[in-house]
Amino acid sequence: MKITVADVEHVARLARLELTPGEKELFAGQMGAILGYVEKLKELDTEGIVPTSHAVPMENSFREDIARPSIGLEKALANAPSRAGSFFVVPNVIE
Amino acid sequence: MKYQPVIGLEVHVQLLTDTKIFCGCSTTFGSEPNSQTCPVCLGLPGALPVLNKKVVEFAIRAGLSTNCSITPRSIFARKNYFYPDLPKGYQISQFEDPICQLGWLDITVEGQETKRIGITRIHMEEDAGKLVHGDSDMNDGSGVDLNRACTPLLEVVSEPDLRTSDEAVSYLKQLHQIVTWLGICDGNMEEGSFRCDANVSVMPVGSSTFGTRAEIKNINSFKFVKQAIEYEIERQIDLIEDGGTVVQETRLFDPNSCTTRSMRSKEEAHDYRYFPDPDLVPLVISDQWIERARRELPELPEQRQHRFMTDLGLPAYDAEVLTASRALADYFEACVAAHDNAKAVGNWIMGEITRSLNDSGTSIEACPVTPARLAELLKLIDNGTISGKIAKTVFDEMWKSGKTPQTIVEEQGLVQVSDIGAIESIIDEIMAANAGQVEEYRGGKEKVFGFFVGQVMKASKGKANPSVVNELLLTKLQG
Predict the structure, then answer these.
(1) Segments forming the whole domain that contains residue B456
(2) Could you name the CATH architecture of A5-41?
(3) Window 137-196 of B, Cβ < 8 Å to A
(4) Cα separation, B195 vs B176, whole angstroms
(5) Is B32 helix (H, G, I), strand (E, B) or coil?
(6) Cα separation of A91 and A88, whole Å?
(7) Which residues of chain B have pLDDT under 70?
């Protein structure tokens, strides 16, 4: 499957990644190869097989609705690049 | 050209759980920012979300009450986008196989026939955090509070079956009534516990192809839903009439100007790259589970309305008003259990009780006059101890002092006077003092009768039994 540099740029923008022209070429080739492999798998007859959403055969893992202590404000904000009072601070995002 | 609006609603219902959907942090509103957080809701690497079972129970309840089918095997998906209120860079939601699918609600707009509105799906998801702007400490930055992050939501998506703003409001009110009735949402629209986005488009009347739609956000009251939709319909029609085209976009409702405006920042790439969340295993709901949930459902507003009409003989209007909330309907039924006169009980609740609740800003749950006390008061009217008019005075005193109606009647000497001799002597005095009016009445001016009734009631301080007064006056005046 052919992946173009434009495809790579689109995905990179969605993931907020900045790539050099060389990287774009490199990843276009690699992504094309990976998707080509998936194309190959598509040749298999999967009639009647439920799509696999999870690799582990497990279901219904629940917790009860019972509160437990949070980690506390200081721990929560410990790694914040910027804070003001009890808030994390990020660059202005007013609509 | 004539245009036909087409409207679909997406409603976010915040669930009344004690803890968040994927972690044990408390969901209490109004706490210190970021104090109710942990590695899961902060989106720290390596943290594992685990589903709150109550969220599933609530979602099933909502689905069964809106005629949805419950999906036997449903999965969670990651919706990927970047925004500072979303710490993981993705929202855990459901995409394919949501928990509830293909339901409906029947709505009624005054003067129109009942209309069925389809519900496409109901899915579970986590809420984002809250952004705070304009604080001077923040050096023109925005503050992030993640207490709300990971709070459980249901998103209820309607089919584009709505055609007018009134239909949209009616649908929304009914959904609001159901989720609050079920006790799964507090319904507080101002605090954002029940919020609505509207998809609005217009097409030429007779067309079968929908126009391009705009999605309107930030509509946090029933009044705003109506205003936002009406403004948007007008805007799109004007745009088309002027030769323009509607673009698919997200618009923000501004309640101050009652207009909508484009949110350009959200234009960028509605490419969420949904995929199954590997952290959360599939959710399998057995038929037994669904049946148990169905058995545990409370009697719903519509069913209760119907029962009030057929079993208690209430008119449709009364039945509707008295089932406005589950608490009100419970109050009414508790009164009827203590005083077997549904119509009279209903009238008092819709009249004095509602007025006093509104005047004092009290909820029915906190009503100072209990159902048992109201029943006692109505019994005093029925057995002739007090008149309906005096009962209102007694009621006001019960509301203020919390005393029993019997005590108030005794303390204030409000017992109705039905004693013929006592009333006759009052009538005699009044006739003697108003000889002119007596002559007028006897001369054929029957309107004066009302004057005499008024005088007698006044002289007895409202305590004379009105039917006895009428009877005696008639006899005496006719001389």
Answers:
(1) 420-477
(2) Orthogonal Bundle (1.10)
(3) 137-146
(4) 10
(5) coil
(6) 10
(7) 264-269, 479
CATH of the domain at B455: 1.10.10.410
Query: Looking at the partner chain, which of A16, A76, A87 has a beta carbon nearest the beta carbon of B42?
Result: A76
> For B34, phi and psi rounded to 5 degrees?
60, 10
Same domain, B90 and B178: yes
Contact B17, B7 (CB under 8 A): no
Q: Any chain A CB within 8 A of the CB of B362? A: no
Number of domains in chain B: 3
Touching A: B residues 457-476, CB under 8 Å? none
Mutation pick from A56, A88, A92, A94 vs chain B, by most beta carbons of B within 10 Å, is A88
Query: How many residues does this entry show for chain B?
Result: 479
CB pairs under 8 A between A and B: 132
Q: Which residues of A touch B131 (CB under 8 A)?
A: 93
Q: Residue B408: how many CB atoms within 10 A of its CB?
A: 22
Comparing alpha-carbon positions, the chain B residue that sits nearest to A72 is B35
Give A49-66 pLDDT, tens digit per residue.
Answer: 887 888 888 899 999 999
Q: Is B278 a domain residue? A: yes
- What ipTM was estimated for this complex? 0.89
Final residue belonging to a domain, choices B411, B433, B448 = B411
Q: Identify whether residues B401 and B283 lie together within a single domain.
A: no
Establish if B337 touches chain A: CB-CB under 8 angstroms.
Answer: no
- Residue A65, min C-alpha distance to chain B (Å): 6
Q: Is residue B13, in this structure, part of any structural domain at all?
A: yes
pLDDT tens readout for residues B416-440:
777 777 888 888 888 888 888 888 8
Report if residue B296 sits inside a domain: no
Residue B295 lies in a domain: no
Q: What separation, in Å, do the N-terminal and C-terminal C-alpha atoms of chain B show?
A: 76
